[in-house]
Design goal:
Length: 266
């Protein structure tokens, strides 16, 4: 039988280990050298809801951040009103979507090959529910986007064109990972396809780029048909922590990428 003395020694050994987790300067995740205070500082400028989500479950957040930091940078490159791709950026692994048995509105639509496995999985899952997903637009070259934008400017005027069409170099479609599902219409969200995608696309790595009531953040009006493939980890973090705001996550990630990279314990 152990003496009281032995229990006392045991308590002295265990208490510091347990209480260490709650201390401000202790690392939050075994793979990162980041304290709670440092993380609190980094997320300070984020909207309240997002900041609270991260600080409530910081370990899980860092788990996903670590995975994302090691993934294809194409998933997190920022392409928006103020960040562009060069005129010569053409992805090397473009394939013809029609060759993979995925429904398209035009035979020559292309995407990067890295999108196909999750796109196929998503299409099959939708099929099981009796929903047929069809792709209306996908990769667009710089030159094509230039023609499209000029057409909008000519027919609608520059101000309206900028709310609905990206300037050349600023379109996510140039990445080769972005899809407009058919029909490309404002009421797409009311269709079976639109509703199903809004609930399920994130599970397959797709993220809605221009959500409702976010024009001040994205610069674009709501586009319920426009999804960017960002991989399953990024799609999860956007949904779980960033309230579905892809633009806010990508801005945050690109601003603080170096901070997180430098603190990974490899
Ligand atoms: Zn689009």
């Amino acid at each position: 039988m152990k003496s009281n003395h032995s229990y006392l020694i045991l308590a002295f050994l265990i208490i510091p280990i347990l209480s260490g987790c709650a201390k401000g300067n202790t690392s939050l995740h075994p793979d990162f050298k980041i304290s709670k205070q440092e993380l609190t500082d980094v997320v300070r400028s984020l909207p309240d809801g997002i900041r609270n989500n991260i600080l409530k479950k910081p370990q899980c957040f860092l788990e996903f951040m670590e995975r994302i930091l090691r993934e294809d940078p194409a998933y997190t490159v920022l392409v928006d009103k103020s960040h562009s791709l060069t005129k010569t950026y053409i992805p090397k692994d473009l394939i013809n979507i029609n060759d993979y048995g995925i429904p398209v509105t035009k035979k020559n639509l292309k995407l990067r090959s890295i999108v196909i496995p999750d796109l196929k999985a998503m299409e099959e899952a939708a099929n099981l529910r009796g929903i047929k997903l069809t792709i209306g637009s996908s990769y667009r070259s710089y030159t094509y986007q230039n023609r499209l934008y000029s057409h909008y400017v000519k027919t609608e005027g520059r101000e309206k064109a900028d709310r609905e069409s990206a300037r050349p170099g600023h379109s996510q479609h140039q990445l080769g990972t972005t899809i407009d599902f058919y029909p490309i219409e404002d009421n797409f969200i009311e269709t079976k396809q639109g509703t199903w995608l809004s609930e399920n696309a994130w599970k397959y790595g797709f993220s809605l780029s221009y959500p409702p009531n976010a024009e001040t953040i994205t610069g674009y009006k709501y586009e319920p048909w426009h999804y960017r493939y960002v991989g399953r980890d990024v799609a999860y973090i956007i949904k779980r922590y960033f309230l579905g705001q892809q633009e806010i996550f990508l801005q945050f990630f690109n601003t603080h990428k170096k901070f997180f990279m430098e603190r990974i314990i490899s």
